[in-house]
Structures are given as structure tokens and as C-alpha cells.
Design brief:
The protein is an alpha/beta fold. The chain has 22 helices and 11 strands.
Length: 491
């Protein structure tokens, strides 16, 4: 991947020479600098899908406001830094620093008299280990009653003009599969590397605990629905996979307090049947059993933080002794919320590919620039960009993956599934490509890669193999050779 980044950086240096003194020079400098920044991941979805809640869970802090306040209608960037700062970028005027406070965990920003409609974006700088890996972009909800608010996410991520997309990847939240979700995701994908291209999008079945009406086994039902969505041809064309997440529980798990655990223990100490009756509904939980020792305000606070599903689950875990301390309970709740699975998916599909995704963003922006604004000396630059996009093996893997997802490359289901894995459809790590355990040793990996190489060589050379599959098989052969070369260097 460093070779691809180096080639991209060289192409940007040439572009800066070609476009020196033009209005596009500053944008090219920003593209060059972006190669050294964390991956940019946007969180998008329909109104009330839980975007800000999931962002807080991923950061591990309650930063983004989750109510329907002014700032939820503004595109907000969350990035790592040495200081705590909020900058506003008005549509008219220069960026400036804003006053802010933290109330109940979330950041409350004083817009200084600016209307939300007059703000291009907010940039929150916050020292955070999670934000060193990825800069997160919180977007307004799609499908808002306000057309202007609804268009902001479209304009940011799915603009059809020649500007570079600010995001390298997107996490798209959906509660149900809506036609507007597919429309947005199709618009987000570019047409230059291949069309459609799901490589930089992951779907999240959000508020997953509500699917089972808050029952303790709700997440099992949500996983079955997410698995079905992941195999739906329409969905596969626009996202790599769909992961169920109970966002509110995930956010609470990573910010759990000892006081909350103490309150939950009171509920866990109630006999099972009486506890089940108490938690039949939110109204019953707030109003019944005054002898519980919790005020209505404390009970409402638990519901706001955990939801009925989370209170039931946490009380059950404490009652059964699965967790006894705040640390243990937080770990169990995070895992059962789906947050752990989502973090693994993001790691394998986004963060292990950060160089590929960042190079891809820069090259596509360069390609669009040379087409829209030709300049003397621009033809060799355009040819250089085209050559990188056409010859770099990771991009060839993306083309094949997209062709498979679109149904252009077919075959027996087990063969197509093997092809997807070998070219990185489930993640770029060798053990994922070869369907081995994460702790597989070099000898086991080498043996499996050798078998895969032979298998795909036979398929590529077989005269009975369809033309599309032959092309895909040659890419798979190159992927296997790459794995063996990497394993050889590691040895």
C-alpha cells in the first residue's frame, strides 16, 4: 500500500506543477495533506436513525448532541487534536472559534448568533485515541421535513460535481430498508473505478434492539434481519455488509458510571417474575414498586441512557453473575450491543485499507479535475492518473468485487464466495482472505495461500471458464501471489 500512496503523492506533486497559480492549487495541497491524515468516515442515515448516538459510541465519549437541537442540523466534523476547540465555518465569512460547554456529557455549542442555515460546518477538535484512527463526520438526517437540512448530507457525500468527496468511507444507518437509502448510497458511489462500488460503505441496522420490541433476545432477531439484508442483491451493490447495532446501549456501555450500576443492582435484586412485570413497559418501570428505592427521576434517567432493552439486559447480566463490576458490565453491554462486531468490521474493511481508500479519494478527485479543467501539460497528468487506477492491483480487486456484487461475474455460489474472500471482500488481512482463524501461523497461512493460488490458476486456465470469471480469476491469482510474497517477507 505504501507504493500506491507514493504513486498518488507523486501524481499530486505533478498536478501542483500543472495547476500552479490556478484556483485549484489550494485544493490540491489539501488533497496532498489528506494522505497523511486519519481516514475520514462519514456517518449518514435517515432522521432519527441514531447517527450521533453511534458516533459517541465509536469515540467512547458523549460528544455529539443526540437531541433535536440546532447543531444536529449542521454537518459536524470530530477530529483528534492537542486542544479542545470548536470552529465554525460560515457560508459567508471566515472561520472562527466558538464558545462551548459540556452539559450532561454532550458538547453544547454557542453559535454566536449564527442561524444553522448560515453555517457550512462545525469542526470539533478533541483529544481522543479513537479519533486518531478516523476523523468522524456527523451529517444531518436524510428525509428531514426541512428540504434544506435533508439536502446537506446529499450535497456533502453525493454531489455530482468535480469536487473531491470529503469522506473516504461512509457508515450508513438504516432502521428499515427504504428506497431513499438505496438512492443515496448509489449516488455516494463514484463511476470511475467501477459502478456500482460498495468498497467504501458499510450498512448498520440501527436501533436494533427495537426490532424485538426491547426483549432480551432482540439482538438475535436483528442479526437474522441484518444477515438477510447483507445477501440482498440490491443491498450488496451499495454496502459491503450490514451490522446490527443497538446504538443507545453501545453509547451507554462505553460511558457507564458506577452510580448507574448501583441503580441497576437494585433492579437485579428483585425476584425474576416481579422484575419481568416491572419491566413490561416504560410506564410500569417508572411508576411501580416505590420500595425499589429509586426515584422516578432516577428511573427516567436509566431509561434515557439504556432504553427498556438495556435495563432488562443489564439487570439480567447482574442477576446471573455474568458481570459484577462496572467494567465487566460495560464490556458485556458493548459486546451485546453489536458495537464490538461493528468495530471489527470497520477495522477489516476500512482501517486496514486506509491507504487504499485515501489514495482512491485523491486519484478520483485528480481524474475529475483534469477532465473538468484541462490545462497545458495536463494530458500527461491525466494519463498518469489513469495508469495508476488501471494498473494498481488493489483497484483491480475493487473492480472485480464490484462486478461480483453487481452480478456481472457469476458462477457456482461457493466459487463466487471464495472469489470474494480471496480478493478482500471480507477484509484485506490474509487470514480473512483464506478463511482461517486470526491467530493462524505463517505455515498455515502459506499452505492455504498456496492451495488458493493453485485453485485459481486452474480456474483461470480452464477453457470452460466464462470470460468474466477468467478475468476475475487472474486478479485472484495476483492476490494469492501477493499474500505469498508478503508471507515470505515476514519470514
Amino acid at each position: 500500500m505504501s507504493t500506491l500512496v507514493d504513486r498518488t503523492r507523486a501524481a499530486l506533486a505533478n498536478a501542483l506543477d500543472v495547476y500552479k497559480g490556478s484556483p485549484h492549487a489550494a485544493g490540491l495541497v489539501a488533497l496532498r495533506d489528506r494522505l497523511d491524515e486519519p481516514l475520514r468516515v462519514a456517518i449518514a442515515g435517515r432522521v432519527k436513525s441514531g447517527k450521533s448516538t453511534l458516533l459517541n459510541a465509536l469515540v467512547g465519549e458523549r460528544l455529539a448532541p443526540t437531541d433535536a437541537g440546532e447543531c444536529t442540523r449542521i454537518i459536524t466534523w470530530y477530529k483528534d487534536g492537542h486542544t479542545y476547540q470548536v470552529m465554525v465555518h460560515p457560508r459567508d465569512g471566515q472561520p472562527r472559534q466558538l464558545r462551548f460547554a459540556r452539559e450532561d456529557g454532550a458538547i453544547e455549542v454557542d453559535l454566536g448568533g449564527l442561524a444553522p442555515e448560515a453555517v457550512e460546518q462545525l469542526v470539533v477538535t478533541w483529544p481522543s485515541q479513537a479519533l486518531r484512527t478516523a476523523t468522524l463526520i456527523d451529517t444531518p438526517g436524510i428525509g428531514s421535513l426541512s428540504e434544506q437540512v435533508s439536502r446537506r448530507a446529499w450535497d456533502l457525500l453525493a454531489s455530482a460535481d468535480e469536487e473531491a468527496s470529503p469522506a473516504d468511507a461512509v457508515i450508513y444507518l438504516m432502521r428499515h430498508l427504504h428506497a431513499g437509502d438505496l438512492e443515496f448510497l448509489r449516488a455516494f458511489h463514484d463511476t470511475e473505478v467501477s459502478r456500482p462500488n460498495p468498497v467504501n460503505a458499510v450498512g448498520v441496522l440501527s436501533r436494533a434492539d427495537e426490532i424485538g420490541v426491547g426483549r432480551v433476545d432482540s439482538m438475535a432477531s436483528a442479526r437474522r434481519i441484518a444477515a438477510r439484508l447483507s445477501t440482498d442483491p440490491n443491498v450488496r451493490r451499495v454496502v459491503q455488509t450490514v451490522v446490527p447495532v443497538a446504538g443507545l446501549l453501545a453509547e451507554t456501555a462505553v460511558t457507564l458510571t458506577e452510580t448507574e450500576v448501583g441503580h441497576l443492582r437494585r433492579i437485579a435484586d428483585v425476584p425474576v417474575k416481579e422484575g419481568d412485570d416491572l419491566l413490561l413497559s416504560a410506564d410500569r418501570f417508572v411508576q411501580l414498586r416505590p420500595e425499589l428505592g429509586l426515584t422516578s427521576i432516577e428511573r427516567e434517567a436509566l431509561l434515557a441512557r439504556f432504553g427498556l432493552f438495556g435495563v432488562r439486559l443489564a439487570a439480567t447480566l447482574l442477576r446471573r453473575g455474568v458481570a459484577s463490576t462496572a467494567t465487566e458490565l460495560a464490556r458485556e453491554l458493548a459486546e451485546r450491543s453489536g458495537l464490538g462486531e461493528l468495530q471489527e468490521v470497520l477495522g477489516s474493511l476500512f482501517f486496514e485499507r486506509r491507504d487504499l481508500l485515501k489514495s482512491r479519494s485523491a486519484l478520483l478527485a485528480l481524474d475529475a479535475l483534469t477532465r473538468a479543467y484541462p490545462r497545458p501539460g495536463g494530458d500527461p497528468l491525466a494519463a498518469e492518473v489513469e495508469e495508476i487506477l488501471a494498473s494498481a492491483h488493489p483497484f483491480n480487486e475493487l473492480r472485480v468485487l464490484s462486478s461480483v456484487r453487481a452480478g456481472w461475474v457469476g458462477g457456482r455460489p461457493e466459487v463466487v464466495e471464495d472469489l470474494e474472500r480471496v480478493i478482500g471482500g471480507s477484509g484485506s488481512a490474509a487470514y480473512l482472505r483464506l478463511r482461517l482463524a486470526p491467530d493462524a501461523g505463517r505455515a498455515e497461512l502459506t499452505s492455504a495461500a498456496t492451495d488458493a493460488l493453485a485453485r485459481w490458476q486452474r480456474r483461470a486456465e480452464n477453457p470452460m471458464t466464462a470470460h468474466e470469471m477468467v478475468i476475475a480469476a487472474r486478479v485472484a491469482v495476483r492476490s494469492c501471489e501477493g499474500m505469498l510474497a508478503e508471507l515470505g517477507r515476514a519470514g
